[in-house]
Amino acid sequence: MSVADDEARAMRLKRRCEIKRKSCVNKIRSVHSLAIRSAADSSVVPQLLVMVETIDHLLSSFNSEDDALLNQLVDMDLDAEYPEQESVEMLDLITFTKATANRFMQYCPDQTLASVHGGSRVSLGNVDEVNPQPAELVITTNEPVGASPGDVHSNNAGSLRSSAVQVIKPTRLPEIPLPMFHGDIYGWISFRDRFAAMVDRRTTLSDIEKFYYLVGCCKGDALDAIRGIPVSDHNYKLAWSTLRERFDKPRLVACSLVEKLLSAPRASSETLIELNKVLVVFDEGVSLLESMQIPNLGDFILFSIASRCLPTYSIKLFEAQLINGFPTVQELLRFVKSRVAILECIPREPTTKNTNFQKPIRGASYNLKKTQLQTSMVTSSNPSPAPQSCKCCKGTHELSSCSKFKGWTQVTRNTWARDQRICFRCLRSGHWASNCKSSVVCGQCSRRHHSLLHPSVSVERSSEESTSKEGQLDVATTSSLLGQNTSPSVILGTALIHMSDNAGVLHTVRALIDSASQISAITSDCTNRLGLKIRKWTVPVSGLGGVSVQNVLGIVHCQAQPRFSPDPVFNFDAWVFPSITADMPRYPLSHSLADKYKH
């Protein structure tokens, strides 16, 4: 719609309001002029008395049209054109007219007048019933039937003495639409009261008519609730009671209101907007709760707060034995005490431990950065579980505290722990060391295994080193038996090769060439970068001297080839370790040597 169309529409609304307002003004002025004429001409008094009965309706119509005109002028930025003096003038005219009519009624209570419409005179005596149809003003008279209106007013110097027996004012109120209900329990109370006042309690309607009105007012879930009930005169009460039983749930509404109040957000600052939000939530919520006429509102609020702390199963048991519609906090506390008494009498069942082994955790993605992989390997310590029975001596202590286990040799402890599928880090069953979340590390080498399972193999130090004053250093023993000695450093040969990831994309990696190794090995960082799938591996891997290699994460299938040639392609299985070697070389290389052999 264009701007010109909007302006034209606004002008039409303004002109319509002005015409209706002017019509009300003319009618009020007409009644006022009749009141002025009645002071000199008593024959117009009956007409004045009739018109006074309608003057309140004229005032109401004038106020409505006056407000509509004012709103339209404000919307059009023409409020300066609003005629304020006419509103004051209309009030003065109506006041004068009513005062004039009251003066006639006060001084002439016994005199009867003829009908304002002329014709024969009718005497109704005492009128007890009110005809619902529009009626005329009926006047009784004490004069003979044949007397003329002039004879009635001839006595008492022309003064008028009249009494109106009954005045029925025809009124037409705006049509009130029937309420609609879609099955929302929060809107049931409003629908119930409105429908009962407009339809259910009307004695002039039959039950079949009420049923049709009810079906027309229901939509959605509400209509589905009574869809199966045949529409008949005898089934109306059944349908109405069905809706009441289905949707009349004041407790659910009250619980939702209390929950809304308890979960209301805190105002971030003392501003007009924030404080108004708080006021709207609590003012509306409290008013609705008070209008529901809960027997003990404070006690019900305490019940709602306490019930939020109970588990779902306890709430179900409490609701199953609940009789009253609005429970109290004392009823809830009595129920909780009874449940406590029952649970105290029931022996506790031992918790069954899950002995299923977890699969090794695969890297999140093959293209993750190294820093992200290092971060994912950091684990938080969980609270220690309840003491379990020792698998070695069947005692009630941990395996790490078992004297029998400690009395065995290191090789026996390792063999027994491997056979019993014991974690080499926390000495508990149910998982491997690679998936252990414990923060336990070896006290001798700070590796990821328990101190009781630390390898007993050590490197003998030379007599020259033991007498030297360089200080004694504890050297961690590893599967490669790399120790501190005075022999020259050995540089192992490496090569840059291409390896395929899980999508077939080639990546450049560094390979350590060891002709004496019987297996191929790969670090977990490289495995995660390539996105290779790790398969479980439980068979122990031994190093030099038969020392068991710790922290075997699994085995993966690899495909490698030279960097500058597509052939040959090597397919092999490699065992996954957190690291393959220690930091090498032990001493910095000279620049000439590094430049000579670097890739």
From TrEMBL:
Superkingdom, taxonomy of origin: Eukaryota
One Gene Ontology molecular-function label: nucleic acid binding
InterPro entries: DUF1759, Peptidase_aspartic_dom_sf, Znf_CCHC, Znf_CCHC_sf
Annotated CCHC-type domain residues: 423-438
SUPFAM superfamilies, alphabetized: Retrovirus zinc finger-like domains
A Pfam match: DUF1759
Keywords: Metal-binding, Zinc, Zinc-finger
UniProt-listed PANTHER family: PHD-TYPE DOMAIN-CONTAINING PROTEIN, RIBONUCLEASE H
Name of the featured protein: DUF1758 domain-containing protein
